[in-house]
Design brief:
With about 550 residues, this protein is an alpha+beta fold. Helix content is about 55%, strand content about 10%. It is globular. It binds flavin-adenine dinucleotide.
């Protein structure tokens, strides 16, 4: 089956999980109309691209990248309908709708065709980086081109020797006599580095200026268009396309910059800080992408489990639909509890970011959204294969593609290991644990709303989390414990998200289902917090093991 947009679920989650009514310009009726319109477009034009793109990877032909043909016409419809400028300021030609609404549409796009979503989504992060750091002239020049979808954008960070460690970036930016800059170097794994959906692409490039400090302090951020104002190609090209496990239709490019003309964005030496505006937006977008993939994994699983008949179940005529078996129900409920709980967490984080009144909480939740929700999406995709049995391993039922497409979400935008270390070693300790305190207050607020059994379970989970924090703060670094702390934090965060949804279950489009998924999360998933906390009390870090162990 193709993706179906769960609009009523989105609206319920936005209101009760994300607290969207805190946004001053939120209008539910407008949101419903926009979501209904986008659902028509996404289900009609984007979802059919998914199998086509999987079977027809992007190609490098005569030095230019060609995406699957139907992607070009679908993008033209996306651009012409103005979907790319939904949350952009009116002065740049956008529609000024809330960013959180654009996040929901991004989830829908990802559920329908993750490759398409991947290609178009980087423009949103680029626009945030430009408006946050650009001069008025740069905003006036580039924002309307990106908002209208005439151009798309890339994020050029990774180099062969510089992956997680961006301090190793060696691409050089040199000042030119005309007041601009020339960029020379090689970037790898650049999503959408070239494509034939737009006439131009704006590359946001991290590079080192002559004589700059070593490490990340010496990095600056540059805007480097693929085509110049006079129509000539800039000296930047895709020299290789990667073949990969999933996201086949999204071109992953090795880029050569051979003295490409560029302009500085923001201040010299502040490149990483400026790029973080884009990276943090993209981290939330990867979480959104993963949730879209988890949603389609659940949709296909529920449809299959209702149809497929095997074995006996109670006094039903046999063979019974497999959805009647307890173990299959366990898997279906796990998918629902993870997907809908993670969605509520992500959308609440988006609203908090948009309100701008609790940056410490956003700092804390951004790595949690990136790492925990992408782990959950991969789990939901794994379960989809299991629910389909042997058919899940075949291409025909299109659940193996979900797993292949989802797997990268745990790696790009900072691997989940790096996110975990960031949370446990940096964010937790920052400013006298200000962000951790903001997180604790957020959970306590959800606890105050939670119905009886959920309040009890969530307060136990919170106590485990606090004990783990105390233990971690006594250590010099979390090391091998970081990933466990990330999971513990994610479970508590999603536990709080479910508490909010459960408290409002009467208003849910499917109240029984909301109550069942909330109870499942509370009784089957949240108790893992105790084991995780205990394991974090006192552990030996593998860093102390001798080298021979790993030889
Ligand atoms: C399909 C795809 C699309 C991509 N799109 C883009 C893009 O558009 N733009 C872009 O710039 N990049 C992009 N990337 C690159 C991606 O962001 C990197 O692959 C990722 O950041 C990891 O870097 P790496 O592959 O060099 O792995 P490495 O950094 O070599 O990491 C390997 C392993 O070591 C671990 N590790 C590394 N350092 C540490 C540490 N300090 N502490 C603990 N563990 C550590 C990692 O967690 C990981 O498990 C893309 C990659 C892919 C595959």
């Amino acid at each position: 089956m193709d993706y179906r947009s769960p609009i009523d679920d989105f609206l319920f989650t936005l209101r009760h999980g994300a607290g969207v009514e805190r946004l001053p310009h939120w209008e539910e009726e407008t949101a419903r109309q926009v979501l209904a319109e986008s659902a028509r477009f996404i289900e009609g034009e984007i979802a059919p691209l998914d199998p086509v793109g999987d079977a027809t990877p992007a190609q490098l032909v005569d030095g230019r990248v060609r995406v699957a043909p139907r992607f070009v016409s679908a993008y033209a419809s996306y651009r012409d309908a103005g979907w790319g400028g939904l949350a952009v300021a009116a002065e740049y030609g956008g529609q000024e709708l809330p960013h959180v609404l654009a996040a929901v549409i991004s989830e829908m796009l990802a559920g329908a065709c993750a490759s398409f979503q991947m290609i178009v989504s980087l423009a949103h992060g680029a626009m945030r980086a430009i408006t946050a750091n650009g001069s008025p002239q740069q905003c006036a020049r580039y924002m309307p081109l990106l908002a209208s979808g005439e151009w798309l954008a890339t994020m050029c960070l990774t180099e062969p020797q510089a992956g997680s460690d961006l301090g190793l970036i060696s691409t050089l930016a040199e000042p030119a006599a005309d007041g601009g800059w020339r960029i020379t170097g090689s970037k790898i794994f650049i999503s959408g580095g070239d494509q034939n959906m737009t006439d131009n692409i704006l590359h946001l490039v991290l590079a080192r200026t002559p004589g700059a400090a070593r490490g990340v302090k010496g990095l600056s951020l540059f805007l480097c268009p693929a085509a110049l104002a006079d129509g000539q190609r800039n000296a930047v090209s895709c020299v290789r396309l990667e073949e990969k496990l999933g996201l086949h239709a999204s071109p992953t490019c090795q880029m050569a910059f051979d003295g490409a003309r560029a302009e500085l964005l923001g201040a010299e030496g502040q490149g990483l800080a400026h790029m973080f505006v884009m990276m943090n937006a993209q981290r939330l977008d990867v979480a959104v992408q993963a949730t879209g993939l988890a949603e389609i994994a659940g949709q296909r699983s529920r449809a299959y489990a209702a149809e497929r008949r095997q074995g006996r179940a109670g006094d039903l005529p046999s063979p019974a639909p497999i959805q009647r078996h307890a173990d299959v129900r366990r898997m279906l409920l796990t998918q629902m509890a993870l997907t809908e709980g993670c969605r509520a967490l992500i959308l609440r984080t988006c609203v908090t970011l948009e309100l701008g009144d609790n940056p410490a909480l956003v700092d804390f939740l951004t790595p949690v959204c990136k790492a925990f929700t992408t782990d959950c999406a991969v789990e939901a995709a794994q379960l989809a294969i299991q629910i389909h049995g042997g058919y899940g391993y075949l291409r025909e039922y299109r659940v193996e593609q979900i797993l292949r497409d989802a797997r990268i979400t745990q790696i790009y935008e900072g691997t989940n290991g790096i996110q975990a270390a960031t949370l446990a070693d940096r964010v937790l300790r920052l400013n006298n644990a200000e962000a951790a305190k903001a997180f604790r207050a957020e959970i306590a607020a959800a606890l105050a709303l939670a119905p009886g059994a959920t309040a009890d379970a969530l307060s136990v989970a919170l106590a485990h989390w606090e004990a783990a924090v105390t233990a971690l703060l006594k250590r010099h670094a979390a090391g091998a414990g970081a990933t466990r702390f990330m999971r513990l934090t994610g479970l508590v965060a999603v536990g709080a998200a479910w508490a909010r949804l459960e408290a409002a279950a009467d208003a849910a489009p499917r109240p029984q289902r909301t109550l069942a998924a909330a109870a499942f999360f509370r009784d089957w998933l949240l108790p893992e917090c105790g084991i995780l906390a205990e394991s974090l009390m006192n552990y030996t870090d593998f860093a102390a093991e001798p080298e021979e162990v790993f030889a």
